[in-house]
Write a structure and sequence with these properties.
The protein has about 350 residues and is an alpha/beta fold. The protein contains 16 helices and 9 strands. The structure holds coproporphyrinogen III (CP3). Coproporphyrinogen III binds near residues 33, 94 and 99.
Amino acid sequence: MAPITPAPQEHRFLAACRRQPVDCTPVWFMRQAGRYMSEYRALRARYSMLELCTPPELAAQVTLQPVAALGVDAAILFADILLPLVPMGIDLDFSAGEGPVIHNPVRSEDDVAALRPVDPAASLNNVLQAVRLVRRALGEKVPLIGFAGAPFTLASYLIEGGGSRQLARTRQMMYSRPALWQSLMEKLARVIAAYLSAQVDAGAQAVQLFDSWVGVLAPDDYRRFVLPYNQIIFSALAECGAPTIHFGTGTASLLGAMREAGGDVIGVDWTTPLDQAWDTLGAGIAVQGNLDPAALFAPPDELELRVRTILAQAAGRPGHIFNLGHGILPETPVDTVKRVVDMVHEVTSHGN
Ligand code: CP3
């Protein structure tokens, strides 16, 4: 009889996205490439944020830095959610210390009409090329996650002209000019769906949709003004074969609606206990999260307790991906991040 060749083992991160058995809980970190790493700071001393994102070789190099340094179970492409806005006609800067600034905010019918459709293969080819380079460099080591911002979160930057705590102008436009809001959201959804599909075609093995600021909305408004557009994106990706992660912060009252919008995995921030979030979401979905990024500054015992608490709340349910509830903070000690990776793996390995 011919020997049975075992199917190649799927990596634990992708297996968890599909709620399949894993040897231990996979772990990666949002913003795992960034200023807390000396390798990143060395490059940032020579290049601006946008310059770092532009040549595929540099973006690929930054993507790989945390994989080598931390032993995480996935790489996430080094880019930014705001990059696809540039070919749409947006004049964007990352000013030191203040975050992104948009010099031509979108507030009128004319502004929305002026936003250009985007062919990712033409205008975002450097990002797609970075995906290809990273895949080649990683081989079978760990999977690569692609990502994009969700329409609401991108619209908030477009309308506010940068970061904002309350997103007052955004909510004003939503409630007072619903037709304008709809045309803006449709344009964004179309660009993002094409961009994420192109990332998968280029080799991204999973994609995350960042709806980081959607927690400023009440559930009814989420359903009316956000859900349909996120649904367009997840439906477009349904056949692509790559698992999808749907992330937001401040989403305690939105989790059910986020699940309806789509995603194989729902990302949860640290203000909702993981078990409670999972109970709200229901069975049949994977969950990513949810250590408070500030816990990485706590004394070792306190940090360990918090990691163990999250793992206990996951309670061995299939489909837990360990992550922070939001991105790594710039001053985080690298050794501590590495210690969390090892801890998650050790605590959850089943005698392997
Ligand atoms: O996770 C990763 O390691 C991949 C890279 C990544 C970046 N931005 C690089 C970046 C990802 C996934 C993002 C997503 C992103 N960008 C989001 C959604 C995630 C989140 O944090 O909620 C948002 C809202 C943005 C917009 C953005 N870009 C802001 C608000 C800022 C400034 C904040 C800051 O930390 O300075 C950026 C700049 C940015 N994007 C940096 C990095 C590493 C810092 C650039 C630097 O000064 O070196």
